Amino acid sequence: MSDEQQGGITTVLKEDRSFPPPQEFQTRASVKSMEEYEQLWQKSIDDSETFWTEQAETLLDWDQRWETLLEWNAPFAKWFVGGKLNACHNCVDRHLLTWRKNKAAIVWEGEPGDSRVLTFSDLHREVCKFSNALKSIGVTKGQRVTIYMPMIPELAIAVLACARIGAPHSVVFGGFSSEALADRNNDAEASVMITADGGWRRGKIIPLKDNVDECLTKSPTVKNVIVYKRTGQEISMESGRDHWWHELVEEQSADCPAEPMDSEDPLFLLYTSGSTGKPKGILHTTAGYLLGATLTTRYIFDLKEEDTYWCTADVGWITGHSYIVYGPLSNGATTVMYEGAPNWPDAGRFWDVIEKYRVNILYTAPTAIRAFIKSGDQWPKKHDLTSLRLLGTVGEPINPEAWMWYHEVIGGGRCPIVDTWWQTETGSIMISPLPGATPTVPGCATRPFFGIQPQIVDKEGKEVTQGRGGFLVMAKPWPSMLRNIWGDEERFKQTYWSQVAGKYFTGDGARRDEKGYFWILGRVDDVINVSGHRLSTMEVESALVSHDDVAEAAVVGRPHEVKGEAITCFVTLEEGKQPSPELKTELSKHVVDQIGALARPEEIRFTDSLPKTRSGKIMRRLLRDVAAGRESQGDTSTLEDFTVLAQLRDGDE
Ligand code: 6R9
């Protein structure tokens, strides 16, 4: 039987550039060689009990030790059963007993250029006062709290305060509409909402409180709203329901003991949307999640005490939860938070922030990198980026050409790049290089992290042979895995555990090369079947992006009488490049040269922008509808800019 018939994916992209860890980096790294990595990884799989026990003992502070490491009644996992701890205590209080008490915990920059630094003791005081404020309006353990805020220190303070008193938080990204907020809030049934009057984005105010007012007409569970004053414009405050943050906090004591939580008590819900149906409230619990975030931050970012670390995500995404708040703070690191847009007031803003705070570690997304390439090298070149020592990427497969640009122009050729694969559901990074050990390859997430056992299987759940593409699954449970979908156990079983018996189904395609490196091929729904060959759209996109004139590309299948599906490409061009029929022909030839005739595009369309989620993922599902001339079905609440879709459709007629 052919590979395709078995549900495999034909993979076509070749990449043979490889970058060993720079010696200087390696010498100081916590894991220094592939041999060391391989040994540790093998041990973590063969004797996972000892591995996780040691990590949990070393990395976390416990109020009470657990009795059983893992109870696994597939698909339900309980980790560190019987243990008690508090995530906020681990992120804040425990550092006060060390010299870190006056170390910068959060270095914040607002979009208008204002900045603040909070030490661990500042953070402790503010979190305790706010925890008491929450209690004063009746929030108790187990009650959900919706947080809808701009990227200001109070967002982290609110998250940590919820963790401190045991109220699971549900952070909704500040860019979401009132409708999206209401949907999520209704599902979580939160009785308290924390927001701000507004937040800054591209020089304009996002009217957060107005959105909350609108949302509350559809979301009756909310009895109290706390409003932080950030932008200062006129807003309406409903007496008895709405409270100013500063007024509520003013009278609170700075003493608030952290609630000892069961390992398996919910820490937070985070909504993520699938291709169909309403958003899913992904449930994470306390001990396992915190251990995953703490451990991966330490090893994958090779954290040193003196590092200034910046993850550019929003706390409204899982990346911000794990790698702005919980992971860095639990490790006692200095974490940078930036409020606004990457290109405000100009395309040099990120590089300005790096130069200003001497950032050492930068973690960002391929979509941002491609946008920076498009605006030109002159922006980073104006800034001193020599403080950087490590770069990271997350969110999508990174096209090899974007990887090379990141490596050369931002990393000056000296910084390892960690291409980190993971999901909201996995809680923490699953597949990634270890920067002092793993030779990196552009576009490749490389090897699994300790304790993680990914496999690539066909439709029947059989492992595919090396080099073949298939479905990426996880063979073993891991501490930071999701525990459920809030209020929808059936969907949890259906979505993640019914495709391949006993294994976690990621929804992504991948292949493994001869080095054992994992290549992520994107979502399996993003596979096109051309004349019986299942091609990953990502590989065709990377071929397009490797052309000098192309900034971004999205590739989808369109129903085709003969071929089954035909390749349709949506392409945005680099600044200053013009669309033309000649360029279409040239791009088509370029794809054929890179991949082969089977990937010849049926159609290439130029567009100014692509439809993306607010976290920067291209929404190929919507492009498939455009290509097929259909109306879009399913959830579009995560679409960042609705006009993009209208433009694509207009261009159609
Ligand atoms: C952390 C995060 C998860 C999906 C995941 C995959 C894609 C994330 C990636 C990557 C290739 C990487 N993805 N990192 N694909 N290489 N390094 O992004 O979580 O928003 O839940 O998205 O993102 O398709 O399944 P989330």
Automatic annotation (TrEMBL):
Domain AMP-dependent synthetase/ligase positions: 101-478
Q: Name one GO biological process term.
A: acetyl-CoA biosynthetic process from acetate
The reaction(s) this protein catalyses: acetate + ATP + CoA = acetyl-CoA + AMP + diphosphate
Q: Matching PROSITE patterns, A to Z?
A: AMP_BINDING
Extract the HAMAP family matched here.
Ac_CoA_synth (MF_01123)
Instruction: Outline what the protein does.
Output: Catalyzes the conversion of acetate into acetyl-CoA (AcCoA), an essential intermediate at the junction of anabolic and catabolic pathways. AcsA undergoes a two-step reaction. In the first half reaction, AcsA combines acetate with ATP to form acetyl-adenylate (AcAMP) intermediate. In the second half reaction, it can then transfer the acetyl group from AcAMP to the sulfhydryl group of CoA, forming the product AcCoA.
Family the entry assigns:
Belongs to the ATP-dependent AMP-binding enzyme family.
Q: What name does this protein carry?
A: Acetyl-coenzyme A synthetase
Name the species this protein comes from: Kolteria novifilia
Tell me what gene encodes this.
Answer: acsA
